[in-house]
TrEMBL record:
Family membership noted in the UniProt record: Belongs to the sigma-70 factor family. ECF subfamily.
Domain (RNA polymerase sigma-70 region): residue spans on this chain: 16-83
One Pfam family, short name: Sigma70_r2
Regions that span the bilayer: none
Protein name stated in the entry: RNA polymerase sigma-70 factor, ECF subfamily
InterPro entries from the UniProt entry: RNA_pol_sigma-70-like (IPR039425), RNA_pol_sigma-70_dom (IPR014284), RNA_pol_sigma70_r2 (IPR007627), RNA_pol_sigma70_r4_t2 (IPR013249), RNA_pol_sigma_r2 (IPR013325), RNA_pol_sigma_r3/r4-like (IPR013324), WH-like_DNA-bd_sf (IPR036388)
Keywords from the UniProt entry: Sigma factor, Transcription, Transcription regulation
Organism encoding this protein: Chitinophaga ginsengisegetis
Length: 186
């Protein structure tokens, strides 16, 4: 093994050991299944390994790792939500219906979602619905409401924060509702 490869391997081990636990706990906020958390963290470190030669400042690597792993979590959750929607669409075509409890759970989640959205300040609610229901870009919303893109981003961030706080136990319900809202209006 050449010196450069050895150096990269040692560097990677150090980055891994210094950050794996923090990343694990970060991902655990979004996914409760420990096996999935481990897979997503591992996927993040694979990305780090692939990009290691171009990464410069190891002392400031954690924010980059969080960005990597957050994108990986979002992609995972989107794939899982699409899979669940496909399964739901398939099951909808089957003669057996969804159980009464599952139907109530979804309807209750939908109702709770609307109640939370309706508690948002009017402008924030309007921005959130333009983004989620109509699929407008940040720029399109900013142009329509005559505010800055930064203001739009801030409102969306605050709206999403409220949703995360209200739906901590069942984030998948929120993802499914948001995806179904987008599908309805496309």
């Amino acid at each position: 093994m050449d010196t450069q490869s050895l150096h990269l391997e040692e560097r990677f081990k150090r980055i891994y050991l210094e950050n794996k636990d923090r990343l694990y706990h970060f991902v655990k906020r979004y996914t409760k299944d420990p096996l999935i958390v481990e897979d997503l963290v591992q996927e993040c470190f694979i990305k780090v390994w692939d990009n290691l030669p171009s990464l410069k400042d190891d002392a400031m690597i954690y924010p980059l790792l969080r960005t990597y792993v957050y994108r990986i979590v979002v992609n995972h959750n989107q794939k899982e939500a699409r899979r669940l929607l496909r399964d739901a669409a398939f099951n909808e075509k089957q003669p057996l219906s969804v159980s009464f409890e599952e139907d109530l759970l979804f309807k209750d989640g939908w109702r709770s979602f609307h109640e939370v959205i309706n508690t948002l300040p009017e402008k924030r609610r309007k921005i959130f619905l333009l983004k989620q229901q109509h699929g407008y870009t940040h720029q399109e919303i900013a142009d329509q409401l005559k505010v800055s893109v930064k203001a739009i981003e801030k409102h969306l961030s605050l709206a999403n924060q409220v949703l995360r706080e209200k739906f901590v136990a069942d984030k998948l319900v929120v993802v499914l509702i948001l995806l179904s809202m987008q599908a309805e209006f496309m």
